[in-house]
Amino acid sequence: xxxxxxxxxxxxxxxxxxxxxxxxxxxxxxxxxxxxxxxxxxxxxxxxxxxxxxxxxxxxxxxxxxxxxxxxxxxxxxxxxxxxxxxxxxxxxxxxxxxxxxxxxxxxxxxxxxxxxxxxxxxxxxxxxxxxxxxxxxxxxxxxxxxxxxxxxxxxxxxxxxxxxxxxxxxxxxxxxxxxxxxxxxxxxxxxxxxxxxxxxxxxxxxxxxxx
Length: 212
Fold this sequence. Notes:
- This protein is 43% helix and 19% strand.
- By secondary structure, the protein is of the alpha/beta class.
- The chain has a domain at 12-40 and 101-209: Rossmann fold (3-Layer(aba) Sandwich).
- Helix 1 (23-33) packs across helix 7.
- 24% of the residues are buried.
């Protein structure tokens, strides 16, 4: 039976990679499999799109509120994208980590760099690669959602994104989703057991070696 006094600290799991590499599929599988993992919900100043729910897809706030939060260091990372602001609220993430829950981030290399500056010790960074650029383009076309121009732009961006693979702790070549999930399970199992994420160990070991 699990000793509840031996609670671990949660971790921040980042999945990055080019569009079409399979991050979204892997993220959904992780969230459905691990009850103690939750998706980071960003705050944004853009308007909700049809079907988006406040607090589930994003926290929709006005620009003045966002600027005030940024000024007060209330974001772990934030950026302006196409005229709207996006940021990761600090309080919700820190609460989850302190309660032993993991937080999943589907962000690019720039967001990962910002998180490294604010929470490096909690980060586990995984880069997801496609098996080839040819396969990546085939996946993008299979979606049948974008024009040729958009796909060409995504392919150009993919090369830039891939160039940052060396900044990550782990790299997964996503040829097969289930094999990639096995890799992620192994990464999580090891990272969750790191000494720094077992705050109870200090007292436990001290009691083991104390004189009788």
